[in-house]
Amino acid sequence: MELETRENVQAQAANQTAYRTLFRNVYTWMALALLITAAASWVVASTPALVELIIGQRFVFWGLLLGELALVWYLSSRINKLSFQTASLFFVIYSVMNGLTLSIIFLIYTHASIVTTFLITAGMFGAMALIGTFTKKDLSSWGSILLMALIGLIIASVVNLFLGSSILYWAVTFIGIIIFVGLTIYDANKIKRALQAHGHEVNDSTQKIALMGALSLYLDFINLFLLLLRIFGGRR
Hints:
Layout: H1 2-45, H2 48-54, H3 58-78, H4 84-102, H5 104-108, H6 111-134, H7 142-163, H8 166-198, H9 204-232
Helix pairs in contact: 1-4, 1-9, 3-4, 4-9, 6-8, 6-9, 7-8, 8-9
């Protein structure tokens, strides 16, 4: 009996260690992706030839945007068939591509306002992630509601490309912030539950769960940052 109890304690300790490692990996991957994106954006914005190639050539810019969408779709749909090394490589490539297209913000907004908005975003994101992680409620019911709201937001944004309505622009901005605040809470909670259910050891499968969690939070952060930049960004 004593031996069995000791083995149970050791197993629980091992499970907790694996969970903490995977949980830490989620935010490490996310932070690394943000750093790569920021570096890629800065390099492009600081290099006139790259600005002309990426921003000045519409087909290159839109090609990168479509490539990003295709890469996220492929990574999400094929994650179970990819090795962790391949999936992580695609994640890094996506971070670079996103940085190339986001370099445009350095040409539109002042550096000081970008830094300020980044810090505001980090504070909001951190608070929401903590709520999602430490709440005892199961927030899985939020998923379908937030997905429908996000689809509506995308449709409204596309429509406003043709209408050019300032009222709709600001409505999309503030509603979008609310949606991505909710998504941050939801995704943080979803990641916690996924790791609690499957993160009993660190292996290829569980590391891919952590990687996809990092991708979700990365997308939440980037979109929240871009929406807040509309409010706090000082134009050049």
